[in-house]
Amino acid sequence: MPPRRAPEQDSTSNNPMDITTTPMETLLKRFQSFKPPTLKGTETSIDRESWLDDIEMFDSLDYTDERRVRLIGHQLHDVAKSWWLTTKKALEDRDTIITWKIFKVEFYQRFFPLSYMKDKDAEFANLKQGQLNIKEYVAKFSTLLCFAPRVAENDEGVADQFINGLNPDIFTLVNTGRPNNFTDALNRTKGAEAGLIRQKGTSYVAQPHKQQKPST
């Protein structure tokens, strides 16, 4: 799949597009010009997860939560569309503000079997940075976090889980004055990695956690 790149400007103007005032029809046309994937709801769990990953690549379009959810609705067909129409109405009847996070929670609950959710939850609980760079680790952490709602609802818990999975060299730098929220932890982690790269240059390689030898 070729990489998608969001245009910086409106095609009819030399000025950047104002996302907050642009009509939905224009946003929809712009969104669909990147050929976003569709979902029927009858795919395998792996394919459904891939669909969600691909859709989230459109973060660079800077749409608000409300508009993002409305646009995603156009990519749902058959079973997935019927599910979302019913779920959306139920959420609105409860006066729930439908954010992208809410959409993903509902999506996972409907389209992933319990066994799959448990496996992913366990994978998240045991996630370590290992040979991943920070960008790769953040991407994997964020994906698996969706399968751990009890952790996701507490920002301090998210930060703790993220920090504890870092490799020792970065962990030591980040854990000084331990951050109590994920945003702060992420910013410090990026800074720590950048500092190590500047210090060691191209010779810097992420040092994974050492495997503990089983006790005898």
What key attributes describe this structure?
216 residues, mainly alpha, 56% helix, disordered N terminus, 2 domains
Approximate shape: globular
Largest sheet: none
Mean pLDDT across every amino acid position: 81
Whole-number tally of structural domains: 2
| Range of strand content | under 5%
Number of beta strands: 0
Determine the structural class based on helices, strands and strand pairing.
mainly alpha
Helix amount: 55-70%
Low-pLDDT runs of 5+ residues are 1-17, 211-216
Radius of gyration from CA coordinates: 20 Å
Order of helices and strands: HHHHHHHHHHH
The CA-CA distance between the termini, in Å, is 49 Å
**H/I helix tally:** 11
Q: Would you give an account of this structure?
A:
The protein has eleven helices and no strands. With 216 residues, the protein is mainly α. It has helices spanning 24-32, 45-55, 65-73, 78-93, 100-111, 114-125, 134-145, 149-152, 155-164, 168-174, 182-200.
Secondary-structure topology with pairs:
Elements: H1 24-32, H2 45-55, H3 65-73, H4 78-93, H5 100-111, H6 114-125, H7 134-145, H8 149-152, H9 155-164, H10 168-174, H11 182-200
Helix pairs in contact: 9-11, 10-11
What is the gist of this entry?
The chain is mainly α and 216 residues long. The chain has helices spanning 24-32, 45-55, 65-73, 78-93, 100-111, 114-125, 134-145, 149-152, 155-164, 168-174, 182-200.
